[in-house]
Amino acid sequence: MSDFRVSFSTMGTGCTLHRRSSPLAAEVVAAVRARFEAIEARFSLYRADSELSRVSRGDLTLARASEELRSAYGEALQWRAATDGDFTPHRPDGGLDLSGLVKAHALRDAARILEETQDGAWLVDVGGDIVCCAPDGMPWRTGIADPGNPAGLLTAVDLGSDWSAIATSGTAERGEHVWRSRQLDDLVQVTVLGGDIVEADVLATAILAGGLPALDRATRTRDIDVLTVDRHGGLRVTPRLRAHVSAHAREGSASTAGNMRAVG
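Predicted structure:
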């Protein structure tokens, strides 16, 4: 089956839009790109003129910031409370950093644009974090990277039925970019699969930051699946995902299912 795709650079990485039935209309691609640009212009700390940079410098108070920025900050505080501080919008120096949330917002907004304008199956991939739709019953197959082997994969998963979103947080490519609230370094990569890209992205960051206690709490309280890699190369996986990976192994797909420890 054909896979029509369009790619562009955004947020320091790349975005790829996929559609099966026919190419995406130019105006739809333009709308997605415009939304990414608007979010980056408001929230990027790499742009000195962004609204968040102005807040961080003290040129603009939160009270006078846009409703969108204040709403994102409020949501980040809610996630901080929900994750016992493992996800936080504050850097150790006290600065405000919403990058752990706004990329997921951009993915969510892109998905809404595609839902409203496109029939059939589509997928949005930003730096390996994905949200998709597969109403035709044909899943989108994606790989989970092996942090110990940049050219390798731990396994492949099918998105579209059990899960429509996947997000990974890790240290292999970007180093220690997550503020580890408990000073733990046991986990080096966390992949979360679920039905909401914001939840998946936030919890991937929170589990990486909070380690095994955060993994246990998230998998007990939320309808997600998780695959983690620790600094010794050990793997942990939730039961539903383990069954999915084992099925792929029986089909002959590359898999490390036999080396995975159960979670939950």
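Summary: DSSP finds six helices and eleven strands in the chain.
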